[in-house]
Design a protein that fits this description.
Blueprint (H helix, E strand, L loop, with lengths): L2 E4 L9 E7 L6 E2 L4 E6 L4 E5 L4 E6 L6 E3 L3 E6 L6 H8 L36 E4 L7 E4 L1 H10 L17 H5 L30 H16 L2 E9 L1 H13 L6 H15 L5 E3 L4 E3 L5 E3 L1 E3 L2 E3 L2 E2 L7 H16 L5 H4 L4 E5 L18 E15 L2 E15 L5 H16 L2 H4 L1
Parallel strand pairs: 14-18, 18-19
Antiparallel strand pairs: 1-8, 2-4, 2-7, 3-6, 4-5, 6-8, 9-10, 11-20, 12-13, 14-17, 15-16, 19-20
Helix pairs in contact: 6-7, 6-9
């Protein structure tokens, strides 16, 4: 008997999926465990295997098209089997008929009288009529705002060509008027502008839909506040150079920040927390999400137990995640379970910014670039390397003092990297 293969829910945030590719065509034999299609979710493109044997009788979603979770993806059955009744039943489900209780008849029911209230007439601003000097009988139309602006600038409205309805002079005509544009009778000719309006449109990807929905929920439900701090990165720069001189895997500044955050989170569990509505969860483990920019938007793979890993392990893992994200090869286990998130735009020349909290986290750290600036040390102005970080906090969970204490610990570690490597 033919069976419907439905669009699977391949991630916790997935509401619909796009078929990136079909590995079978109608009429092909499909075995259980055999690759049937590639499904693009909101975060990655994943392979979908068949759970039953049969012949592919129907493809419900063409390549490049989307379908909601549990929608018809395909139908498998025996060769030549009639599936018209199955499709008809799916497209036109039998509605449930509910029995309604008999209406109760009221005796001497009073008639309902609708009361109408007079509606105030809408007042529409009318243009002011101004006599034209050229023709005593002619009248020109001028908006009140244009008349007021012309009076302030000392402009003779009879010299202004109106661009509004029926030649009415409006604000933009007065603002753009110049004596060289004065009309000579009705012979004024507006300059010709050769231009063409154009635009392109493209369908919103599954990833972009999810980013829009989740970040809107975060921004409008979590009361954000922001804490910004400057960090002297001179010692961190020296430490990175020394590490990369001998390490087989090159360490980035983002890896140093991630390692420092993981260590600081262990000391400040209130920042490593989540708002759950009727309770607050304080996580004993440290899973740091790292925002990675890809063509369609943003992905946040998670470095698990980051506080227990070395700089080399963190650097290797982040590089692997970044490549998998760009290749759309991340799996659900790669992006789930974050307790804190880091977003770094320093490599793009951004000095500082604020980031929207990535649910279910209570905080996210926005990291800017390292700038060469003059700083005061021991009473003298000397060259320095300053990096600004901004902590976005969910005020339902984290108070200002808790967030500030976390940043103080982070600053101390980055300004003296030995402390976070111990």
């Amino acid at each position: 008997m033919a069976e419907i293969v439905r669009m699977p829910k391949l991630s916790d945030t997935m509401t619909d999926g796009v078929v990136a590719a079909w590995h079978k065509k109608v009429g092909d034999t499909v075995k259980s465990g055999e690759l049937l299609a590639d499904i693009e979710t909101d975060k990655a493109t994943m392979e979908f295997e068949s759970f039953q044997d049969g012949v592919l009788l129907h493809i419900g979603v063409e390549k490049g098209k989307s379908a909601p979770v549990n929608g018809i993806l395909a139908i498998l059955g025996k060769a030549g089997e009639d599936i018209s009744a199955l499709l008809a039943a799916e497209q036109n489900p039998t509605p449930k008929v509910e029995e309604k209780p008999a209406a109760k008849v009221e005796e001497k029911a009073a008639p309902v009288v609708a009361k109408t209230e007079p509606v105030a007439a809408k007042t529409v601003a009318q243009p002011i009529l101004v006599h034209a000097e050229e023709n005593g009988d002619a009248r020109m139309k001028v908006s009140p705002l244009a008349k007021k602006l012309a009076a302030e600038k000392g402009i003779d409205l009879n010299q202004v060509k109106g661009s509004g309805d029926f030649g009415r002079v409006v604000k933009r005509d007065v603002e753009s008027w110049h004596p060289s544009m004065a009309q000579q009778g009705n012979s004024y000719i507006a300059p010709v502008v050769n231009g063409q309006e154009s635009y392109t449109e493209e369908s919103v990807s599954q990833m972009r839909k999810t980013i829009a929905r989740r970040l809107a929920e975060s921004k409008f439900s979590a009361p954000h506040f922001y804490l910004t701090m400057e960090i002297d990165m001179e010692e961190a720069v020296k430490a990175r150079e020394a590490i990369n001189a001998i390490a087989p895997i090159k360490v980035s500044f983002n890896d140093l920040v991630l390692r420092a955050c993981a260590t600081a989170l262990r000391r400040h569990p209130k920042v490593n927390s989540s708002w759950l509505g009727d309770k607050i969860r304080y996580n004993n483990h440290v899973h740091v999400g790292v925002a990675v920019a890809v063509e369609d938007g943003l992905l946040v793979p998670v470095v698990r137990f980051a506080d227990q890993k070395s700089l080399a392990q963190i650097a290797s893992e982040v590089k692997t995640f970044a490549q998998k994200a760009k290749d759309k090869k991340l799996q659900p286990a790669d992006w789930e379970g974050n307790t804190f998130t880091i977003s770094n735009l320093g490599m793009f020349g951004i000095d500082e910014f604020t980031a929207i909290i990535n649910p279910p986290d209570a905080c996210i750290l926005a990291v800017g670039g390292i700038k060469d600036v003059p700083v005061v040390k021991n009473g003298a102005v000397v060259p320095g390397k300053i990096m600004k970080v901004t902590l976005s906090c969910d005020h339902r969970v984290v108070d200002g003092a808790s967030g500030a204490a976390f940043l103080q610990t982070l600053k101390a570690m980055l300004e003296n990297p030995v402390t976070m490597l111990a």
